[in-house]
Amino acid sequence: MGEPCASGAKEVRNDRRKEPTQRVVLEKLVGKSHYCFLDGFSCYMQIHIALEDQHKTTFTCPFSTFAYTHIPFGLCNAPSTFQYCMTSIFSNLLQDCMEVFMDDFTVYVDSFEACLSNLSKVLKRCVDTNLVLNFEKFHFMVTEGIVLGHLVSNRGIEVDKSKIYIITSLPNPTSVREVRSFLGHASFYRRFIKNFSKLSLPLSKLLQKDVEFNFDQLCIEAFQELKN
């Protein structure tokens, strides 16, 4: 559609603020009796760009030049800026009853009544700050749910079975690219795979520079072991 101007790329400095790790988010949510899962609507586009900074997002089209007034997808600091904004909005609720990771908001508590009360606080905060949510992705008062690709409940953290099915149905890789893709998917659930590094070693060696691609018996066994 368009291309960012070269000057804009030079003017935007990389934001060094760190986002919360998935592990930290997940471990805060486990062991609760009730959850509410909320989702932000067009998350980045809800944040205005200061007028004096809008020129840094300039892009060109065949007949004109434009600049964004709200944060677009693809801007280098969009994720960290959005996370910072959400953390600021819900700052006094984050330690007690909710967790925020980008546009995924989770209300968690140990009783149905308390969950209703905390949900009301979160929704009121959204109204007060003009934060728009995506109602189609809401899940209210449930006992488990998918967060960051994992199933969380009072039982603990479990794998998302729908993603596992995709992994287990994969055929043997026929290229380095397919091996890298498989290891990326498998590594996402490495916390559930004992001796993951050892099991994946034959496959990892195929990713090394100047190594001939040979999906031999050791690789086949490693591939099947990781899938199972």
Automatic annotation (TrEMBL):
Pfam annotation, one family: RVT_1
Domain of life: Eukaryota
Alphabetical list of SUPFAM superfamilies matching this protein: DNA/RNA polymerases (SSF56672)
Domain Reverse transcriptase: 25-150
Protein name, per record: Retrovirus-related Pol polyprotein
Organism in which the protein naturally occurs: Mucuna pruriens (Velvet bean)
